[in-house]
Design brief:
The chain has helices at about 1-35, 40-50, 60-70, 75-85, 105-130; strands at about 60, 90-95, 100-105. By secondary structure, it is mostly helical. Keywords: DNA-binding, Transcription, Transcription regulation.
């Protein structure tokens, strides 16, 4: 009996996590839409912004980004193509592996990321912190 209750509690906690994720994702999409982005777009910009070198540039392999934003490589490739078309990122060949592709923020992408970072953090604060 106790094992069944523990399983039910675990399943309920999982449903709560899923509901919180769905709610937060919707709130992020709504807030970021005003800036021409969705939550996944922002996540890619955010990952790319984290490792800036001294000269303000940084690039990541598509596979490295995929591991951080939890998108399939094909979905991420489409997203990156859209961000590149909008002038927010640029793609280049990977120097250490000619088959690989590296992605970096453009100046426009860095500016947009800086503009919307407070918006994203405010949504996270509002949806993920307890009173």
């Amino acid at each position: 009996m106790a094992a069944k209750k523990a399983e039910q509690a675990l399943a309920e906690r999982w449903r709560e996590i899923l509901a919180l994720h769905a709610h937060t994702q919707c709130e992020l999409d709504r807030a970021l839409h005003r800036h021409g982005l969705c939550a996944s777009d922002f996540e890619v910009l955010d990952v790319l912004s984290e490792g800036r070198s001294a000269d303000g540039t940084c690039s990541y392999r598509v596979q490295e980004i995929s591991e951080r934003v939890h998108l399939s490589q094909s979905a991420l490739s489409r997203l990156i193509a859209r961000l590149e078309k909008d002038g927010l990122v640029e793609r280049g060949m990977c120097a250490e592996d000619r088959r690989g592709v590296r992605v970096a923020l453009t100046a426009k992408g860095r500016t947009l990321h800086g503009d919307v970072l407070p918006v994203q953090r405010a949504v996270l604060t509002r949806t993920l912190t307890s009173d």
